[in-house]
Specification:
Helix content is 39%, strand content 28%. It is an alpha+beta fold and 140 residues long. The strands form 2 sheets. The protein has a 4-stranded antiparallel β-sheet with strand order 1-8-3-6. The protein has a 4-stranded antiparallel β-sheet with strand order 2-7-4-5, with no helix packed on it.
Length: 140
C-alpha cells in the first residue's frame, strides 16, 4: 500500500480523523499491514484484545453469540474499544475470504498518545460520540 493511501485510510477512521498531519504520519509509522487467509479469527468474543483492524481489501464477519451481526469492508474497522482499554472483546471477528488489513496495536497507539498528549482528548471525544450513538441504537 502506498504511504499516502495508508495515511488517508487512517485519517478516515473516526478515532483518528482529528489528528493533524504530523500525528497521522507518526501513526502510519506505527501501523502494520497484514494479509490474512479466509476463516482467520482476528478476535474472539470475551477474550482480551489490544488491536484495531482496518480493512484495506476483503470482508470481515462480525459475530455475537454465534450470530452474524455485521460485516466490515474496505475502509471500515473493528476493535477500537480494546485498543484503548485492552478489555474483553464484545464480538468475534473472522475474515470472510482473504483480506488485507492495517493493524494498530495497543502499544503503538499508546506510544502515539504519549508523544502527542492532545490526542487523548480527540480519542475521548470520539469514544464518547460512539457510545452515545450505540446507546440510541440498543434499548436497555
Amino acid at each position: 500500500m502506498v504511504k499516502d493511501e495508508k495515511l488517508e485510510l487512517l485519517h478516515r477512521i473516526p478515532l483518528f480523523s482529528g489528528l493533524d498531519k504530523r500525528q497521522l504520519l507518526r501513526l502510519g509509522q506505527l501501523t502494520d499491514e497484514v494479509d490474512v487467509a479466509d476463516g482467520r479469527v482476528l478476535m474472539r468474543e470475551g477474550q482480551q484484545g489490544d488491536e484495531l483492524f482496518i480493512v484495506i481489501q476483503g470482508t470481515l464477519r462480525v459475530e455475537r453469540e454465534g450470530q452474524v451481526i455485521a460485516r466490515r469492508g474496505p475502509g471500515e474497522f473493528v476493535g477500537e474499544i480494546a485498543l484503548v482499554d485492552e478489555g474483553p472483546r464484545v464480538a468475534t471477528v473472522v475474515s470472510d475470504g482473504p483480506a488485507r488489513l492495517l493493524v494498530v496495536g495497543h502499544h503503538a497507539f499508546h506510544t502515539l498518545m504519549e508523544e502527542f498528549p492532545p490526542i487523548q482528548l480527540v480519542v475521548l471525544r470520539e469514544l464518547a460520540r460512539r457510545v452515545r450513538h450505540l446507546d440510541r441504537e440498543e434499548p436497555h
